[in-house]
Amino acid sequence: MICYLFYIYFLQINLRCLDGIQGPVYIGSGCIFRRKALNGFDPPKAAKRSQIVQVHSKQDENGEDESIIEATDEDKQLLQSDMNTENKFGKSTLFMNSSLTEEGGVDPSSTQEALLKEAIHVMSCSYEDRTLWGYE
C-alpha cells in the first residue's frame, strides 16, 4: 500500500506589482525566489548617513564620462551592478528602476498606456536578446 500525506503550508507573501513589470515572483512547490535570486541584488535598505561617493559609468568615444551618479558608500556596489543591468536584464529602464526600489512598483506619474507598452516589451520573446539571461 502506498500512502502519502499532503502538508499544507501557509505562507504570507505580498505579491507586489502584478502589472507585469516587477512580478509576481516565481512561487511553486514550497519555494519562493527572492529578489536577490532574480535580480542579482537585494532591494535597497533604509538609508544611513554615510560618505558620498561618485560612481562613473562607461566612457564615450571622446573619453568623457556619459554620466556621474552620486551615492552613499553602501550603495556604490549596487549602482555599479546597476550600470551592467542593461546587459543582464535588457533595455527596460522602467523595469530596472522598479527593481531598485525597496517596495517595488513604478513611478506614479506613469500612464497606463506607457505601463502596458513596457510590460508587453518586457514579456516579449526578443526582450532578452543580446543579454546575459541564461548564461549566468
From TrEMBL:
Pfam families: Cellulose_synt. Keywords: Cell wall biogenesis/degradation, Glycosyltransferase, Membrane, Transferase, Transmembrane, Transmembrane helix. One of its GO terms (cellular component) is endomembrane system. One of its GO terms (molecular function) is cellulose synthase (UDP-forming) activity. It comes from the Eukaryota. It is found in: Endomembrane system. InterPro entries: Cellulose_synth. GO terms for biological process: cell wall organization; cellulose biosynthetic process. Signal peptide: none annotated. This is Cellulose synthase A catalytic subunit 7. The lineage of its organism: Eukaryota, Viridiplantae, Streptophyta, Embryophyta, Tracheophyta.
